[in-house]
Amino acid sequence: MTTGLLLLLSLLVGAAALIWLAGSDARACRIATPVVFGLLVLWMWQLACVGYHVPFVLLPPPSDIGVAIVTHVPMLAADFRQTVLRSVIPGWVIGSGAGLLAAIALDGSPFLRRGVLPLGSLVSAMPIVGIAPIMVMWFGFDWQSKAAVVVAMTFFPMLVNAGAGLAQTGAMEADLMRTYAAGYRTTLLKLRLPSALPFVFYALKLNATLALIGAIVAEFFGTPIVGMGFRISTEAARLDLGVVWAEIVIAAAVGTLSFALLSLLERAVTFWHPSYH
Amino acid sequence: MTRVVPVLCVLAVVIAVWFAASVPMNWSQAQALADDNATWTDIAEATQSLSRPLLPTPAQVADEMVTTLVGYPFNSPRSLLHHALVTAWESILGFALSLAAGIMLAVGIVHVRTLDRALMPWLVASQAIPVLAIAPMVVVVLGNIGLTGVLPKALIAAWLSFFPIAAGMVKGLRSSDIMQRDLLHTYNATTRQVFTKLRWPASLAFLFPAMKVAAPLALVGAIVAELPTGAQAGLGARLLTGSYYGLTLQIWAALLMAALLAMLAIGLVDAAQALLVRSRGGRL
Question: Which residues constitute the domain of residue B118?
Fold first, then answer.
């Protein structure tokens, strides 16, 4: 009864605060609105879980998730090292790098480009993560097989996007380069690669999420007893949801953080692009 | 013609490389199984027909596809068609759910300023979060409160395909020309009329590309959601049992089936788009 009232009260106050904040165009208000909304959701989640005695195995309150993060720091750090540092980052670098190199290699031949790019965009829409059991068979249970899945998942989006980016160069600029008697190499380095950069960054950001998903899901198919995906699947089966949520919070933080870092890098590298003016 | 020939050439090269790679990949296994006096041509031949090869040949995968698709009665657990339809049904349900929810949320965001300011940043941030990681937990928790079968998988599929649709739809509903909105304003059009006559028709050019992204995601969601329960049916279950028992042919056949389903999904969205374009006299 009192919980219901408290929830209703929080909802009303929160909604009023949000409407008031959203009414202003000030920069602080624009940032505050989503933050307040997030806090409101957390607060009502906590209130409902505690007030209605929601079983821990259904939905732990946010405070317990926080406690789980604090009390399991060494384990979470080991999982982070195994999944993010050993599988995600090498796989993401190799897959995206190979995709970019392949796109540049294809660029010389219109025939190959017309043959490979449609297939590439088809493959990047496929459930590639399903190759995880095959990679586990080929590369063993440890991080190598997870990195291989990540490579396969990140290669095609980069190939397709970088390919589209390289094909994007304006005819005027290309003509200008020709009047300078610039060769293929110079044109590629000074004109076409820079103008493809927004596409490359789009693929890098897309791949950051894909790489996390690939490594985590690949761990569902067998790992040494460490890793975020391993922890999520085993602790979910043991109904220790605090740890599961802790891993999810970390995965979400890694995802958003890498997205933010890549966005900053993109701004610094492609400052000339019209979308920033 | 100029579009099909290069694709076919590349495809032919891929299949040739695949055949060629299957010889060295399976060599040691074939050698271990061969007689002492087997020549190397015997071993090379044996690499093409192992029962649990490290890399099955395209011919073996095609053979496995055909036998498991038509060789068993439909309700048999060995029928690939049965598993494919289970997964397809879960994805379709999930996709329908996410389509409805995504469009409703987008309409809310476009019309209610508070929703826009409070939710839009979260919608953008959600693209960077590996939402698939929650799949095992959701399936286990829903199983705890008695929800098993299709629904948990459909919910995961919906959750995964929801964000592209909502984000695409917000963009689409805002894509109408400001001049045209002003024109409707001078006609004293109500919000509802602006929505049905301008915003909604203009948004479809964004909805279809979003659906093309979301439909394969729903499929991925359904497949991954089938893993944690040790699932009894579906392509995810085929992948899992295949990986437990080292049945490589079964894994490859399930993967190929998943790829075919994804292609079918994209094809259906394309067909719907083509129908719509025709009914609107040639443009979206």
Answer: 80-279
Domain A69-276 has CATH 1.10.3720.10: yes
What amino acid occupies position A108?
Answer: G
Q: Tell me how many domains chain B contains.
A: 1
B126-142 mean pLDDT: 80
| Helix residue ranges, H only, chain A | 2-22, 27-51, 62-71, 73-80, 89-107, 110-124, 132-139, 143-166, 171-179, 184-187, 193-219, 228-237, 241-269
| A166, A107 Cβ separation under 8 angstroms | yes
**Structural domain contains residue B234:** yes
Mean pLDDT by 10 residues, chain A (277 residues): 83 85 80 86 88 82 89 89 90 95 87 85 82 86 89 92 85 86 85 88 90 88 83 84 89 90 89 72
Closest CB to B128 among A220, A245, A259? A259
Whichever domain contains B272, its CATH number is: 1.10.3720.10
Contact B243 A137 (CB under 8 A): yes
Q: Which residue of B has its CA nearest to A238?
A: B140
* Chain B interface mutation, best of A137, A230, A239, A247, highest count of B Cβ atoms under 10 Å: A137
Q: What is the DSSP string of A234-263?
A: HHHHTT-HHHHHHHHHHHHHHHHHHHHHHH
pLDDT at residue B181, rounded to an integer: 87
Min Cα distance B129 → chain A (Å) is 5
Q: Is B171 inside any structural domain?
A: yes
- Is the residue at B20 inside a domain? no
| pTM recorded for the entire structure | 0.85
Q: What is the token pair recorded at A77?
A: 């750090």
Structure ipTM? 0.81
Q: What angle do CA B238, B151, B250 make, to 5 degrees?
A: 5
CB A148 within 8 A of CB A139: yes
